[in-house]
Design goal:
It is built from six helices and eight strands; from the N terminus they run βαββααββαββααβ. The protein is α+β, with helices and mostly antiparallel strands.
Protein backbone atom coordinates (compact mmCIF):
# COMPACT_ATOMS: atom_id res chain seq x y z
CA UNK A 1 0.00 0.00 0.00
CA UNK A 2 1.50 3.31 -1.07
CA UNK A 3 1.51 6.32 1.22
CA UNK A 4 -0.88 9.14 0.28
CA UNK A 5 0.55 12.17 -1.44
CA UNK A 6 1.41 14.96 1.02
CA UNK A 7 -0.91 17.94 1.27
CA UNK A 8 0.24 20.80 -0.95
CA UNK A 9 0.19 24.24 0.63
CA UNK A 10 1.19 27.65 -0.70
CA UNK A 11 2.78 29.97 1.86
CA UNK A 12 3.02 33.73 1.30
CA UNK A 13 5.68 35.85 3.00
CA UNK A 14 4.06 39.17 2.19
CA UNK A 15 4.90 42.82 2.30
CA UNK A 16 2.15 45.37 1.80
CA UNK A 17 2.03 47.92 -0.99
CA UNK A 18 4.17 50.75 0.46
CA UNK A 19 1.40 53.24 -0.30
CA UNK A 20 -0.77 51.49 2.33
CA UNK A 21 -0.56 51.93 6.07
CA UNK A 22 -0.64 48.79 8.21
CA UNK A 23 -4.29 49.47 9.04
CA UNK A 24 -5.19 50.03 5.39
CA UNK A 25 -3.44 46.79 4.46
CA UNK A 26 -5.74 44.82 6.79
CA UNK A 27 -8.79 46.04 4.88
CA UNK A 28 -7.17 45.78 1.45
CA UNK A 29 -5.99 42.21 1.98
CA UNK A 30 -9.47 41.10 3.00
CA UNK A 31 -10.94 42.76 -0.10
CA UNK A 32 -8.35 40.98 -2.24
CA UNK A 33 -9.24 37.65 -0.62
CA UNK A 34 -12.92 38.20 -1.39
CA UNK A 35 -12.07 38.83 -5.03
CA UNK A 36 -9.90 35.71 -5.29
CA UNK A 37 -12.54 33.61 -3.57
CA UNK A 38 -15.19 34.73 -6.03
CA UNK A 39 -13.40 33.22 -9.02
CA UNK A 40 -14.95 29.87 -10.02
CA UNK A 41 -11.80 28.69 -11.83
CA UNK A 42 -9.66 29.16 -8.73
CA UNK A 43 -11.83 28.58 -5.68
CA UNK A 44 -12.49 24.81 -6.20
CA UNK A 45 -8.75 24.16 -5.87
CA UNK A 46 -8.55 25.83 -2.44
CA UNK A 47 -9.27 23.77 0.67
CA UNK A 48 -8.37 26.38 3.31
CA UNK A 49 -6.89 29.84 3.52
CA UNK A 50 -5.54 31.47 6.67
CA UNK A 51 -4.34 35.06 6.41
CA UNK A 52 -2.15 36.02 9.37
CA UNK A 53 -1.02 39.57 10.16
CA UNK A 54 2.27 40.52 11.78
CA UNK A 55 1.75 41.68 15.37
CA UNK A 56 4.84 43.94 15.13
CA UNK A 57 5.39 43.25 18.82
CA UNK A 58 8.73 41.82 19.94
CA UNK A 59 7.50 41.52 23.51
CA UNK A 60 5.49 38.54 22.24
CA UNK A 61 8.52 36.93 20.58
CA UNK A 62 11.89 38.65 20.79
CA UNK A 63 13.18 37.27 17.48
CA UNK A 64 10.12 38.29 15.46
CA UNK A 65 10.64 40.14 12.18
CA UNK A 66 9.36 43.67 11.63
CA UNK A 67 10.17 43.58 7.91
CA UNK A 68 7.10 41.72 6.59
CA UNK A 69 3.38 42.30 7.01
CA UNK A 70 1.85 38.85 6.97
CA UNK A 71 1.76 35.18 6.09
CA UNK A 72 -0.91 33.32 4.14
CA UNK A 73 -1.32 29.55 4.43
CA UNK A 74 -3.21 28.34 1.37
CA UNK A 75 -4.06 24.62 1.40
CA UNK A 76 -4.76 23.13 -2.05
CA UNK A 77 -6.67 20.11 -3.33
CA UNK A 78 -3.56 18.86 -5.14
CA UNK A 79 -0.12 19.84 -6.42
CA UNK A 80 -1.40 20.66 -9.91
CA UNK A 81 -3.33 23.63 -8.50
CA UNK A 82 -0.06 25.28 -7.42
CA UNK A 83 0.84 25.75 -11.07
CA UNK A 84 -2.56 26.07 -12.70
CA UNK A 85 -3.86 28.84 -10.46
CA UNK A 86 -1.27 31.28 -11.83
CA UNK A 87 -2.16 30.50 -15.46
CA UNK A 88 -5.87 31.29 -15.70
CA UNK A 89 -6.72 34.26 -17.92
CA UNK A 90 -9.00 35.39 -15.10
CA UNK A 91 -6.00 35.50 -12.80
CA UNK A 92 -3.97 37.59 -15.21
CA UNK A 93 -6.73 40.07 -15.99
CA UNK A 94 -8.35 40.59 -12.59
CA UNK A 95 -6.23 39.32 -9.73
CA UNK A 96 -2.78 40.55 -10.71
CA UNK A 97 -3.72 44.28 -10.81
CA UNK A 98 -5.43 43.78 -7.47
CA UNK A 99 -2.32 42.07 -6.10
CA UNK A 100 -0.25 45.14 -6.95
CA UNK A 101 -2.77 47.34 -5.16
CA UNK A 102 -2.41 45.12 -2.07
CA UNK A 103 1.16 43.81 -1.95
CA UNK A 104 4.63 45.08 -2.78
CA UNK A 105 4.74 42.83 -5.88
CA UNK A 106 2.85 39.97 -7.54
CA UNK A 107 1.90 37.20 -5.10
CA UNK A 108 3.72 34.49 -7.05
CA UNK A 109 6.99 36.38 -6.43
CA UNK A 110 6.76 35.76 -2.65
CA UNK A 111 4.95 32.41 -2.58
CA UNK A 112 6.53 29.12 -1.53
CA UNK A 113 5.06 25.79 -2.63
CA UNK A 114 5.26 23.33 0.26
CA UNK A 115 4.28 19.84 1.41
CA UNK A 116 2.60 19.76 4.81
CA UNK A 117 3.87 17.52 7.62
CA UNK A 118 1.55 17.53 10.64
CA UNK A 119 3.78 17.38 13.70
CA UNK A 120 1.01 17.84 16.28
CA UNK A 121 -2.74 17.69 15.56
CA UNK A 122 -5.13 20.45 16.50
CA UNK A 123 -7.04 23.37 15.10
CA UNK A 124 -5.83 26.69 13.81
CA UNK A 125 -6.37 29.27 16.51
CA UNK A 126 -6.32 33.07 16.84
CA UNK A 127 -2.53 33.45 16.73
CA UNK A 128 0.33 31.74 14.93
CA UNK A 129 4.09 31.76 15.29
CA UNK A 130 5.30 31.22 11.71
CA UNK A 131 9.01 30.59 11.10
CA UNK A 132 10.83 30.40 7.75
CA UNK A 133 13.93 28.21 7.99
CA UNK A 134 16.99 27.30 5.93
CA UNK A 135 18.53 23.88 6.59
CA UNK A 136 22.12 23.36 7.65
CA UNK A 137 24.21 22.42 4.62
CA UNK A 138 25.38 19.20 6.28
CA UNK A 139 21.83 17.81 6.12
CA UNK A 140 19.87 16.53 3.17
CA UNK A 141 16.35 17.86 2.73
CA UNK A 142 14.92 14.53 3.90
CA UNK A 143 17.07 14.48 7.05
CA UNK A 144 16.24 18.10 7.79
CA UNK A 145 12.46 17.73 7.43
CA UNK A 146 12.35 14.51 9.46
CA UNK A 147 14.40 15.92 12.34
CA UNK A 148 12.60 19.26 12.33
CA UNK A 149 9.19 17.55 12.37
CA UNK A 150 10.28 15.40 15.31
CA UNK A 151 11.52 18.44 17.26
CA UNK A 152 8.36 20.37 16.40
CA UNK A 153 6.18 17.50 17.60
CA UNK A 154 8.06 17.34 20.89
CA UNK A 155 7.72 21.04 21.65
CA UNK A 156 4.02 21.12 20.68
CA UNK A 157 3.54 17.96 22.79
CA UNK A 158 0.08 17.30 21.40
CA UNK A 159 -1.32 20.37 23.15
CA UNK A 160 -1.53 22.60 20.07
CA UNK A 161 -1.38 22.43 16.29
CA UNK A 162 2.19 22.21 15.03
CA UNK A 163 3.06 21.94 11.34
CA UNK A 164 6.25 21.69 9.30
CA UNK A 165 5.77 22.74 5.68
CA UNK A 166 8.64 21.38 3.61
CA UNK A 167 9.46 23.68 0.70
CA UNK A 168 9.14 22.05 -2.73
CA UNK A 169 9.47 25.16 -4.89
CA UNK A 170 10.41 28.76 -4.15
CA UNK A 171 10.85 32.05 -5.98
CA UNK A 172 14.21 33.86 -6.18
CA UNK A 173 15.15 35.59 -2.96
CA UNK A 174 13.13 33.28 -0.71
CA UNK A 175 15.76 30.64 -0.03
CA UNK A 176 13.98 28.63 2.66
CA UNK A 177 13.61 24.89 3.12
CA UNK A 178 10.73 24.79 5.60
CA UNK A 179 8.02 26.94 7.17
CA UNK A 180 6.78 25.95 10.62
CA UNK A 181 3.53 26.78 12.38
CA UNK A 182 2.60 26.82 16.07
CA UNK A 183 -0.94 27.96 16.90
CA UNK A 184 -2.12 29.73 20.08
CA UNK A 185 -5.33 31.10 21.54
CA UNK A 186 -3.75 34.46 22.40
CA UNK A 187 -0.61 36.53 22.11
CA UNK A 188 -0.13 36.11 25.85
CA UNK A 189 -0.15 32.33 25.47
CA UNK A 190 2.43 32.58 22.68
CA UNK A 191 4.61 34.82 24.83
CA UNK A 192 4.54 32.40 27.76
CA UNK A 193 5.13 29.36 25.56
CA UNK A 194 8.18 30.78 23.79
CA UNK A 195 9.75 31.82 27.11
CA UNK A 196 9.35 28.39 28.69
CA UNK A 197 12.46 26.16 29.07
CA UNK A 198 11.02 23.50 26.75
CA UNK A 199 11.02 26.04 23.94
CA UNK A 200 14.05 28.20 24.73
CA UNK A 201 16.46 25.60 26.10
CA UNK A 202 15.40 22.46 24.25
CA UNK A 203 13.57 23.26 21.01
CA UNK A 204 15.63 26.27 19.92
CA UNK A 205 18.85 24.47 20.80
CA UNK A 206 17.83 21.50 18.65
CA UNK A 207 16.67 23.76 15.83
CA UNK A 208 20.04 25.53 15.83
CA UNK A 209 21.64 22.16 15.10
CA UNK A 210 19.40 21.71 12.07
CA UNK A 211 19.15 25.22 10.61
CA UNK A 212 21.16 28.17 9.43
CA UNK A 213 19.68 30.49 12.05
CA UNK A 214 21.22 33.57 10.44
CA UNK A 215 18.66 33.13 7.65
CA UNK A 216 15.68 32.45 9.90
CA UNK A 217 12.65 34.72 9.68
CA UNK A 218 10.10 34.40 12.49
CA UNK A 219 6.77 36.20 12.57
CA UNK A 220 4.37 36.44 15.51
CA UNK A 221 0.93 36.86 13.93
CA UNK A 222 -2.78 37.04 14.53
CA UNK A 223 -5.30 35.37 12.27
CA UNK A 224 -7.08 38.10 10.30
CA UNK A 225 -9.43 36.11 8.08
CA UNK A 226 -9.89 32.64 6.72
CA UNK A 227 -11.97 30.64 4.29
CA UNK A 228 -13.65 28.57 5.66
CA UNK A 229 -13.75 30.79 8.73
CA UNK A 230 -12.08 29.52 11.90
CA UNK A 231 -14.65 31.42 13.96
CA UNK A 232 -17.08 34.29 13.46
CA UNK A 233 -14.50 37.05 13.55
CA UNK A 234 -12.27 35.43 10.91
CA UNK A 235 -14.98 35.11 8.24
CA UNK A 236 -13.68 36.98 5.22
CA UNK A 237 -17.09 38.54 4.44
CA UNK A 238 -17.67 39.88 7.98
CA UNK A 239 -16.79 43.37 9.24
CA UNK A 240 -13.21 43.54 10.45
CA UNK A 241 -12.94 42.95 14.17
CA UNK A 242 -10.35 44.77 16.23
CA UNK A 243 -7.68 42.46 17.70
CA UNK A 244 -8.17 41.60 21.35
Amino acid sequence: MTAPDPTTKLVYLARRNPALSAAEFVVRWRQHSLLAGSMPLIRPGIVQTAHCLNLFDRTVFARATLDYDGVNFLTLTGPEVATAMWQHDEMMELLEPDELATFSTYARHFTLTTHEHLASPGSMRAHCLAVFLKRDRALTNEQFVAALTEAHAEVAAGTRRGVVNAVADRPPGYNFDAVTELWFDSAEEMRAFTRAPAFEDVYLKRRAELCDEMRTIAMATRLSHARPAIDERTAVDRPIAQPS
